[in-house]
């Protein structure tokens, strides 16, 4: 017989020959047995049946009445979706539940070019040219899907096919296609089994999520349109009510031009109104390939993408790690945001390229600096509690450690790393506060600390460390502090400014070593057995040399030296003074006493020439314009001092002036030349000439005179002497 055209609330389409099988029971689903007709079906009289018969063109009222009798007991008390079907022009409509002020609001419309019932399978139809349209509850079209061929199950309200399916959001911001699908109208569930391809258009002007994670180049203005997010997988499931979608097997998410994400499962939460992605959860074999300015990749067990208020963020957990050019790291958690990302917990970063040479960044570089250009450098390693990666800058905090093997180790509460935008090599490190660093070399280990440290490499490959905020530093050879310190790390050059203090430590005696015998004589200027302290406003040191200026004061337990400028050479093995040259307003004071009174000798001029010998003798003081001093071969004591211009020696009330002074340890003599003049406390004077040599025996406490000289005695002293002689 001819096809039957039916209108029913449940969407029935069958053949006339099958009518008797429809009552009094109904198959629930193909192959599941029989059961009562679904109560949600309602057949309306005005569109119950319309029979078209090609064999005879007349209709009988008996047919209509008989069919109505069959279905009348099953009619519910409210309206439901309607179906009209025939060989051509298949149509199924579904409506939202009625609400106050709104009725007949369409929820879904299913149409087809042709529909063919399947023999022996009641309620199943083959549809050609399928078109499915869903509507939002407020009226506008939400989604439009199409398929060239599919099957429709009237009872379960399912559409299924092994052929292609294409779906597009009404605003064209979301589309999906694939091969082989199942769509359930009752629960609004869509499943695609193969070759799934989704495209989600990002709003115009949205910044790409992982763009330029480490690039220091300024961001360009956002374009008016952006490339869509492209998602591919093998299978797909989507709930149109909740907006939850799940992609499985061989999942890839492409976000041009920023990244490509691959995993085995991706769960997406879409806004059912705007069709915009709100959340993405990627799991299993997660890899994010960065494709923008800084190629690289990020891995982990799980990634969660969220979008709120126009801001995108991706959280990666499960042993997340990242790798860029010459940079790799790991942490407990990563948070990716536009143009930057943050690492949390047990962070670890390796910069394989070491430092990139840069300018001295406005800081004075010590003269004569020459670096070893192009020399290989060990990678730089950092550990931290939190790291925030911005274009060209990385901020670390919480127990920060940074080191270069066998070269240096830096710790601080916070650390800022500035990177080269092209190579990701480190340009400089800034540590603050509570910054500590250990500098290692074959010769020594230097430890330094301060409130702020800045570490960088200059264009000539010299490595510099600048410390401010009460810097202090030291090794087994010296200790120091100042207001500011600049260290050339590789060559161990130090430049200090403001309240400079340096303590030169005596060398540690070797195990089982015998001490070097010293001359058993009084020496006012010992060196190696006690530390030497240097104070100044500015100073510099490097292996074998030192220079200090502006209010210089050098202190030893036995002597002190004050001057405007002092330069000295140091023994390269023990850092002890080998020679010293001081200029400008020199004052050299010795606290060492002369020999005891019993051993002291007298002379005709005065028995107390250098003060009263013994423990109560006053300090011995030398002033002049320039001093040159050298130490003995063992660095234990100064064995020669030469004073030049305006030489003055004072002790107690004794004062000696000359143009030149030479002190030698070998005999303990002080030789004064160039018109020496000795003035005694009693007012008498010994006045020499240009050829006069005044020799003071510092050990014995007396003096000798060579050359021309004369003596003047005050009249008062002569009167007292003559009076004494006239006494009976």
Key traits:
728 residues, mainly beta, 46-stranded antiparallel beta sheet, rod-shaped, disordered N terminus
Helix % is under 10%
Shape: rod-shaped
Percent of residues in beta strands?
over 45%
Number of helices: 2
On the 0 to 100 scale, the average pLDDT is: 75
- What composes the largest sheet? 46 strands, antiparallel
Helical/strand content category = mainly beta
Low-pLDDT regions: 1-86, 205-224, 363-375, 511-521, 595-615
Annotation, overall tally of beta strands: 48
Give the termini distance in whole angstroms: 179 Å
Radius of gyration from the alpha-carbon trace, in angstroms: 50 Å
Give an overview of the whole structure.
This protein is mainly beta and 728 residues long. It is built from 2 helices and 48 strands. The strands form 2 sheets. It has a 46-stranded antiparallel β-sheet that branches. Strands 2-3 form a two-stranded antiparallel sheet. The longest helix is centred in the C-terminal third of the chain and has 12 residues. 33% of the residues are buried.
């Amino acid at each position: 017989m001819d096809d039957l055209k039916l209108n029913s609330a449940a969407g029935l389409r069958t053949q006339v020959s099958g009518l008797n099988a429809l009552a009094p029971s109904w198959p629930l689903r193909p192959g599941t047995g029989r059961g009562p007709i679904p109560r949600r079906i309602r057949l309306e009289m005005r569109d119950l049946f319309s029979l078209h018969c090609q064999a005879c063109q007349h209709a009988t009222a008996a047919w209509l009445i008989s069919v109505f009798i069959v279905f009348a007991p099953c009619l519910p008390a409210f309206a439901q979706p309607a179906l009209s079907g025939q060989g051509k022009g298949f149509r199924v409509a579904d409506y939202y539940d009625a609400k106050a002020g709104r009725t007949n609001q369409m929820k879904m419309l299913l149409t087809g070019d042709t529909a063919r019932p399947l023999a022996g399978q009641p309620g199943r139809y083959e549809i050609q040219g399928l078109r499915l349209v869903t509507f939002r509850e407020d009226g506008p079209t939400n989604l439009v899907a199409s398929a060239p061929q599919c099957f429709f199950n009237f009872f379960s309200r399912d559409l299924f096919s092994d052929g292609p399916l294409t779906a597009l959001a009404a605003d064209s911001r979301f589309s999906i296609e694939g091969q082989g699908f199942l769509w359930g109208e009752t629960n609004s569930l869509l499943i695609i089994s193969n070759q799934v391809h989704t495209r989600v258009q990002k709003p115009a002007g949205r910044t790409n999520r992982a763009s330029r994670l480490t690039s220091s180049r300024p961001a360009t203005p956002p374009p008016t349109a952006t490339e869509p997010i492209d998602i591919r997988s093998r299978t797909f499931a989507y709930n149109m009510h909740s907006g939850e979608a799940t992609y499985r097997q061989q999942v890839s998410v492409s976000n041009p031009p920023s990244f490509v994400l691959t995993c085995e499962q991706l769960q997406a939460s879409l806004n059912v109104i705007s069709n915009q992605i709100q959340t993405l959860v990627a799991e299993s074999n997660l890899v994010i390939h960065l494709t923008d300015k800084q190629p690289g990749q990020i891995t982990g067990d799980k990634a969660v993408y969220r979008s709120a208020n126009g801001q995108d963020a991706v959280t990666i957990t499960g042993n997340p790690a990242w790798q860029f050019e010459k940079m790799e790291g790991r942490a407990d958690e990563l948070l990716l945001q536009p143009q930057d990302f943050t690492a949390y917990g047990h962070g670890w970063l390796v910069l394989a390229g070491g430092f990139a040479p840069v300018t001295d960044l406005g800081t004075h570089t010590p003269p004569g600096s020459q670096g070893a250009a192009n020399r290989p450098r060990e990678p730089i390693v950092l550990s931290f509690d939190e790291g925030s990666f911005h274009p060209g800058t990385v901020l670390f905090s919480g127990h920060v450690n940074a080191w270069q093997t066998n070269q240096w180790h830096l710790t601080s509460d916070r650390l800022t790393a500035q990177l080269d935008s092209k190579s990701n090599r480190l340009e400089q490190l800034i540590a603050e506060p509570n910054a500590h660093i250990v500098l290692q070399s074959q010769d020594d280990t230097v430890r330094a600390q301060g409130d702020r440290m800045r570490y960088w490499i200059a264009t000539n490959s010299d490595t510099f460390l600048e410390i401010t905020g009460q810097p202090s530093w030291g090794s087994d050879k010296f200790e120091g502090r100042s207001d500011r310190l600049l260290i050339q790390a590789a060559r161990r050059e130090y430049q200090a400014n403001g309240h400079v203090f340096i303590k030169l430590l005596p060398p540690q005696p070797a195990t089982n070593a015998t001490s070097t015998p010293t001359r058993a004589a009084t020496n006012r200027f010992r060196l190696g057995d006690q530390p030497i302290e240097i104070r100044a406003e500015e100073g510099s040191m490097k292996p074998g040399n030192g220079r200090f200026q502006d209010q210089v004061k050098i202190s030893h337990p036995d002597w002190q030296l004050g001057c405007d400028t002092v330069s000295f050479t140091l023994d390269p093995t023990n850092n002890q003074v080998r020679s010293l040259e001081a200029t400008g307003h020199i004052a050299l004071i010795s606290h060492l006493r002369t020999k005891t009174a019993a051993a002291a000798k007298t002379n005709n001029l005065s028995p107390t020439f250098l003060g009263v010998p013994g423990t109560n003798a006053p300090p011995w003081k030398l002033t002049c314009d320039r001093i040159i001093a050298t130490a003995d071969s063992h660095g234990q004591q100064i064995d020669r001092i030469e004073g030049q211009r305006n030489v003055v020696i004072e002790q107690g009330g004794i004062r000696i002036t000359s143009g030149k002074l030479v002190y030698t340890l070998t005999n303990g003599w002080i030789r004064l030349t160039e018109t020496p003049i000795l003035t005694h406390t009693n007012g008498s004077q010994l006045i020499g000439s240009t050829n006069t040599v005044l020799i003071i025996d510092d050990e014995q406490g007396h003096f000798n005179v060579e050359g021309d000289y004369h003596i003047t005695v005050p009249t008062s002293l002569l009167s007292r002497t003559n009076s004494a002689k006239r006494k009976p």
